[in-house]
Design brief:
The protein has helices spanning 2-11, 21-46, 60-79, 83-94, 99-106, 110-130. The chain is an all-alpha fold. It has two domains: 2-46; 64-130, Arc Repressor Mutant, subunit A (Orthogonal Bundle). The chain starts with a helix and ends with a helix. The mean pLDDT is 82.
Length: 131
């Protein structure tokens, strides 16, 4: 209904007052209904509704173990970073300090910190994608 009202509002200039209103309105409703059915058909053809498909493992403890494994893997990837990149990542992302605070603590410029944080985020990502 809302789609029909919005459409009527946007195309009201096309209505000719010398002609009957009913057939014009019926044509708008028919076309919007067809558009809705087509859209719904496209969505249903691609997407499924299966909430259980989003669960990694059926046992809740298995999900917790997967989380622990992911944290361990990520921790190892961060530990392999050079000291400067690791420090920038820990200060800006883990401790959530601002770049200016991090700049004062580390002695690096804000621009250098931005670059180091970017590199520190990219290195583990490429390493983990390769494994």
């Amino acid at each position: 209904m809302q789609e029909v009202l919005l459409t009527i509002h946007s195309i009201r200039h096309t209505y000719d007052p010398s002609r009957p209103f009913g057939p014009w309105l019926a044509a708008v409703v028919r076309r919007r209904s067809i558009d809705l059915l087509r859209r719904r058909g496209r969505i249903e053809a691609v997407e499924t509704s299966a909430p259980e498909a989003y669960v990694t493992f059926s046992a809740p403890d298995a999900d917790r173990q997967a989380d622990r494994d992911a944290k361990t893997t990520l921790g190892r990837a961060v530990a392999c970073l050079p000291p400067g990149l690791r420090q920038a990542l820990e200060l800006v992302k883990l401790r959530e300090l601002s770049l200016t605070d991090d700049s004062r603590l580390s002695g690096s410029s804000v621009g250098a910190l931005k670059i180091n944080v970017h590199r520190a985020m990219k290195a583990p990502r490429t390493r983990l994608n390769g494994e």
